Amino acid sequence: MAGELWNRVNIPFPGAASSVRIHFSSTTDANIKTVLVENEKVLKLIRSEILQTEIRLLYELLYVLNNSFRGNKTFKGLKQVEQCINRLKSMKLDVALEELSNLCPKRIQRGLSIKAGECDVPSQPMLEWLCLKVLGAAQLMSCTLNRCSRAFILSKKQMKWEEFVILNMVITSMISRLWVIFRGILVSLSTLYQQLLKFLREVAHAHPMPFLTDFSLPADMAQFLGPSDALLLIKQPKQDSHAKIHKEKQQQKKKKSSIKVKNQGWTRKVKEDLGVAVERGIVHDTDMKPFLEVFRNFKEGKSLPQRTHKADKKQKFKKQVREATTFTDMAAHLEEMILWCKSQRMEKEKRLLTFLRLKCHKMKNLEAAGYSVQRKLQSFRQEAIWASSPQGACIIIWLGQQVISTICCLN
């Protein structure tokens, strides 16, 4: 296979003329129009922004995982997909198809050529060369689909073993999208090849200039790819309106039969599927919210008076923080709040406030040295308020790093 002409990255360009003048009729006009339409479909798929985005995502993943995942089987599968994509780029198929589009007469030229009775069209060597390009690209797409399937299976195995679940979810979704796009390119290439063969026969009959002497072009893309890959070219037949209506009626009957009445309550059946809206039945008459609220409070070990006391203490601390005019006052309030959090076993708030106390002591030293720290005091008030609630943890850590870097610069 490696020695076949269609399997080369750079197929030798024919030295003959790229276009010839032949007798032009309405049949030729229809053939050229069909070739241009199919050619445009392939170009649109290859140059689509969706495909380029997925390829960039693949490159980014391989770049990030290059060191840590070098021996991983899924990583090796992704590398094989990357090799197929790089080979498709090296083939410059889009450039060859763009050349075909330029050589074919446009709509106005075809209209004038029908009246004149002749027109310049791509020559037989040019069309045979393009057929070789399309055959090589189709075989490459078939190979890429197999590599995508293999990488998908390997990634799915890792997910089943609960290894790198989020990473493998990203990989499987990306590979799935690439598989769909490459299959679309393969189907479009197959259709384009059939139209090119039909046009080639007409041009060869009118102006014979054989370019391929040792290789005969296959009559069908399915015959060229083989039985296993030929299944990818079969399009799923569309259901007619009657079949859809019949299917909808059957689904409605199933839904009605699945609903049963028991003791003035409703039994529900949950049907869930990825990518499909989740259908929910009617819940029981009993409202479960109060029971769940009691259970949640019991699990957290909180009673209503305790929660009220904690809320009042936090509000008092926030008021003291807003009224503090110096970092000395702020440090005293923080010290008091840290001791209280320790007694209430509020570990998260205690850690954040301890972190702020360290920064507060540094700012207090700067204030004692004569620096103007009123601006820092305003931002520090907000940090202290955020620290008293768990929701502000991530923001506090980031702001703390900013303050420490500022202090280091001042020192």
Which secondary structure elements does this structure contain, and how are they paired or packed?
Layout: E1 19-23, H1 26-46, H2 49-64, H3 73-91, H4 93-103, H5 107-116, E2 118-122, H6 124-160, H7 165-206, H8 221-225, H9 227-230, H10 241-258, E3 261-262, E4 265-266, H11 289-300, H12 304-323, H13 327-343, H14 347-368, H15 374-387, H16 393-410
Antiparallel strand pairs: 1-2, 3-4
Helix pairs in contact: 1-4, 1-7, 2-3, 2-7, 3-6, 4-6, 6-7, 13-14, 14-15, 14-16, 15-16
Q: Can you give a write-up of this model?
A:
The structure is a single chain. The chain has 411 residues and is mostly helical. It has 16 helices and 4 strands. The protein has helices spanning 26-46, 49-64, 73-91, 93-103, 107-116, 124-160, 165-206, 221-225, 227-230, 241-258, 289-300, 304-323, 327-343, 347-368, 374-387, 393-410, and strands at 19-23, 118-122, 261-262, 265-266. The strands form 2 sheets. It has a two-stranded antiparallel ribbon. Strands 3-4 form a two-stranded antiparallel sheet. The protein is elongated and about 100 Å long. The N and C termini lie far apart (71 Å). The model is unreliable at 259-292, 298-302 and 392-396 (pLDDT under 50).
Kindly state the number of beta strands: 4
Pattern of helices and strands: EHHHHHEHHHHHEEHHHHHH
Overall, the morphology is elongated
Distance between the termini: 71 Å
Instruction: Please estimate the helix content.
Output: 55-70%
Output the keywords.
two-stranded antiparallel ribbon, 411 residues, mainly alpha
